[in-house]
Design brief:
12 helices; 247 residues; 81% helix; mainly alpha
């Protein structure tokens, strides 16, 4: 019942639809540009074709997931939610599940669409490399989809901990795009701290070209496990906080 309630909230709110529409335009627009440029020089790999989805799409979907929590705290609706469902763990878990499924579905769709767009705009060789029959394309789709789902769970946890929209948006944007690249670029410190940063590991797993400036200590599977562990810890702390702190 709690998951159904969260689905209704998501379906009856306009912002998710407009958000997805904006992300689709940005992601496919970048894919079209990559296809035209790639056809003039070198072919675009599947992970590079999905740069727009990973760079623009996933962070925006994560913000949307966080706002599903902070929005209720801002309006006071969270009190009514907890009155209707006293089990706060179930409430937060339902929000995480719905956000993860929503983000995963649209990320998968956009990643496939980006590959097809680059293949259609680019050369015949490019189109063959990005055909859906190629296993590399589906590896990229699966990786970015999983990243989006885990990132959405992380965002829900951060939203429950911070409880302010501006604060959680700042964290979700500054951490992967400013803080982590700067830490990774610092002499001496970067190589020791960089491989322990969550979004650096997420990017290493997806293998999408990013702002990563350090060499990882483990392969893509290790990076996925590390990022998933960070998500689990943050979400567990959020569950404890939600059950102990008044809304």
């Amino acid at each position: 019942m709690t998951i159904r309630a969260e689905q209704i909230k998501l379906a009856t709110t306009r912002s998710p639809l407009w958000t997805v529409a904006g992300v689709v335009v940005l992601s496919l627009g970048l894919a079209a540009i990559q296809g035209s440029v790639g056809s003039l020089s070198i072919p675009v790999e599947p992970e590079r074709a999905a740069t727009g989805v990973a760079t623009f799409g996933v962070p925006v979907l994560m913000i949307l997931a966080a706002l599903s929590v902070t929005g209720e705290y801002r309006t006071g609706m969270i009190r009514a939610t907890f009155l209707a469902v006293p089990n706060r763990t179930r409430v937060l878990a339902a929000k995480a599940v719905v956000a993860a499924v929503f983000a995963g579905f649209w990320t998968g769709v956009m990643t496939v669409a980006s590959a097809l767009t680059v293949g259609a705009v680019g050369s015949e060789r490019q189109g063959a490399q990005l055909a859906l029959s190629q296993p590399g394309v589906w590896r990229t789709v699966a990786a970015i989809t999983l990243y989006a789902m885990l990132g959405s769970v992380l965002a829900v946890g951060l939203g429950a901990l911070i409880r302010h929209s501006a604060g959680v948006i700042a964290v979700l944007l500054l951490l992967p795009f400013v803080v982590e690249p700067l830490l990774g670029a610092l002499p001496q410190i970067g190589q020791r701290v960089g491989p322990l940063l969550p979004f650096t590991n997420a990017n290493a797993f997806t293998e999408v070209p990013s702002l990563r400036t350090v060499s990882m200590w483990w392969g893509p599977v290790g990076s996925l496990a590390y990022f998933a562990a960070v998500v689990a810890v943050v979400f567990a702390v959020a569950l404890v906080d939600v059950n102990r702190r008044d809304p």
